[in-house]
Specification:
single chain, 316 residues, mainly alpha, Hypothetical protein af1432, three-stranded antiparallel sheet, two-stranded antiparallel ribbon, 5 strands
């Protein structure tokens, strides 16, 4: 048992004089590193880490589109299974839409310290919100006053618009919240220009890192996402939605990410987003508020939390 003391605030904390006595019942490399540090011993790796300043940022590998799609095959399959349109619509509209989004967001996280904060989080979150958006769409009634001969085509436009809005709802985050640069630091990606996959390929970049903009970026991504929703969307998708007879679905899509109180798509995206965020925070609660993913600081934080609260450190 590790001795502890009670601080002035009443919080019981372990005594660091007794940290060397801790013997977990599972392998904990991070704990061994800390033991060496507190005992005054430094392994070659620890000595090297102690000399790193500023702290090294994680590098995201410059993988291609096929690898991105394969890594999300399970979620894409779930979307396909909940898709009620035709095979032709799936192949010519939905697949290009997904591939375009994957090419743009690549392995970027969806947030710095909140939901889907790990590598590939923005792609996974977008797909997940698209999935929930389709499921919610199937519970709603659209095009009730459209003539029968035009109803199926109009409903198809609503379905595609709602999925696109769900998939792309956070697509503005790379432009508004992040600065993406090559691992060497000599190149910066223009998020308003090419997709990240195209930029990596064109410049032969094998990996990249992220700097987060901290200058009032809160909610700024929503405006950027509304712009990027249309500028990054494949032309055939826009044509299909704008070609809906009777109802102007395109105008609804153009304002889907703004809360004006009259948009039919907006509340569906809000609910789909809520479900995705809630699921991720529930399933990944152990890593929800640690340091930057993959960094030494993150390992320190998760292990120290185990000392205080008796929780097994998550795997990084």
């Amino acid at each position: 048992m590790v001795e502890s003391h009670v601080s002035e605030t009443g919080v019981k904390t372990p005594s660091f004089d007794n940290i060397l006595q801790i013997e977990p019942d599972y392998d904990c490399p991070m704990l061994e590193r800390l033991k060496n540090m507190f005992s005054g011993k430094k392994s070659g790796e620890t000595a090297q880490l102690s000399q790193l300043y500023p702290p090294q940022r994680p590098v995201f590998p410059g993988i291609g589109l096929d690898a991105l799609i394969s890594s999300n095959a399970v979620l894409i399959k779930q979307i396909r299974e909940n898709f009620s349109g035709t095979d032709e619509e799936w192949k010519t509209l939905y697949v290009p839409l997904i591939e375009n989004y994957a090419s743009y967001v690549h392995l970027l996280p969806a947030s710095r310290k909140h939901h889907h904060r790990l590598q590939g989080g923005l792609l996974s979150h977008g797909l997940d919100v698209g999935f929930h958006s389709l499921r919610i769409f199937e519970t709603k009634l659209f095009s009730l006053h459209v003539p029968p001969q035009s109803r199926k085509r109009t409903q198809g436009a609503w379905r595609l618009a709602i999925f696109a809005a769900g998939l792309y709802h956070d697509i503005g985050k790379p432009a508004s919240d992040m600065i993406i640069q090559s691992a060497s630091g000599d190149l910066i990606w223009d998020a308003y220009d090419a997709t990240l996959v195209d930029w990596l390929k064109k410049n032969k970049v094998d990996g990249y890192s992220i700097d987060w903009r901290l200058d009032g970026r809160h909610k700024r991504h929503e405006a950027a996402s509304q712009v990027m929703l249309l500028t990054r969307m494949p032309h055939d998708v826009q044509t299909y939605i704008s070609g809906a007879p009777v109802e102007d679905v395109m105008s609804q899509l153009m304002t889907a990410l703004s809360n004006d109180g009259s948009n039919k798509i907006h509340p569906i995206i809000i609910e789909a987003d809520r479900r995705s965020v809630e699921d991720d925070l529930k399933n990944n609660s152990d890593i929800e508020h640690d340091g930057e993913p993959g960094t030494f600081a993150a390992l320190i934080q998760s292990t120290m939390r185990w000392f205080w609260f008796g929780r097994k450190p998550p795997k990084h």
